[in-house]
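Input.
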Amino acid sequence: MAHPDDPQRALSADAPADVVAPPAPTPATPPARSFSPRFVAALFVASLAACLIAYLALASSRWFAGTSDLSFGVDRLAITRGSGDVANGRLVVTQPGDDGNAIVSVTSDFRARDFPIVAFRVENVPAGVKVALLWRTDVEPARVNTVPLDVVSGRAMPIDLQGNAHWLGRIAGLGLVLNGRFEQPVEIQGAVAKSGDAASTLRDRVDEWLTPETFAGASINTIAGGADGQALPLPLLLACAIALAIGVFAWMAHRRGAAAALASGSIALVLAGWLVLDARWTKNLAHNVDLAARRYAGKDLHAKHLAADDANLYAFIDDARRLMPERGARVFVVANADFFRGRAAYHLYPLNVWFDAYHDVLPPPSQLKSGDWLVVYERRGVQYDAARKRLRFEGVTIPAELRLLEHGGALFALQGTASTATADATAAHEARR
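Output.
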């Protein structure tokens, strides 16, 4: 409405220039869709199952065999060459035959195609000893077939003979040959013929993952991951499952417009794999705690030492300390193994002890003098002439008296300074003149 005194204005459909139209409403952004913890857990389990199925498809000879594994206990084994005996439920092979071979055989009768994988449960194989599998078939009864076996950490590894041209017909006998010098007895717990199907392969991998590891210097914080020489280490399987799960999660987050959830989801998947490894560590720790309790619980310090792995060394050092003065003695320790040198020095403290923690070396002859003591434990290369009371090593002779000999160790009381073999021979010649 206009004032009566205002002039007449024409009507117009155009809005005044100084009038601003209200802004158009902005459409609301839909909230990003997140993923529930249950979904992340299910994705991790599904990825782990997919990786396992893929591995079984590649590693198994078939999905279903319909037959159980064939086990051959110690009572079925026989040493046909070499020497040994059964002790503590194991066949202990102590020495090879005159030709340097030790052969352990087992009578069998099964179809080769049903059981393509053979494993002898062998432990403590010395370094340098070669291990091979022997077998004879009804198709070629006059032929003895052989194939070398891999040895990892003193254990003979299983072998898959599915592609071997001579693994056919019925297997009439199996054997294990050990070739080389035995520095320690070889222990055999038995043998097994496996079908190699998916269930058997999965069972073998689980057994490898859950094989207990005894306490070591760092085992309170870390463990290696089960048995030595695993076909599929558990950390590798988990890493593949985590990578697959993160890839699927990233694709789904992009499709659902929830890219912001990728970081938290990836962290959750990594933690899930970590939890699996941590659960295995906890199981292994509980197993070792139980073993330690059975071995040491209720015993005093002396009895605990006698129950430890170095019990023989401790018993020897305990007897040796009674023969040495409590103060002022200089003791030199030599042994082939680093472990024995370090442990012997530990048991000898607070005496003045010399030893090399990292190298198998003898003490410098120039540093030895009368009144010193020499501890030799399972160490080759040290000779003693009891008639002349002379200790000899590396071309040097030292007057010494043998004071103790037990448990693989010897204690010598030095009674003079070192001399070379040439000087010692000259002195003996002058004495005869």
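The two ends are 154 Å apart (CA to CA).
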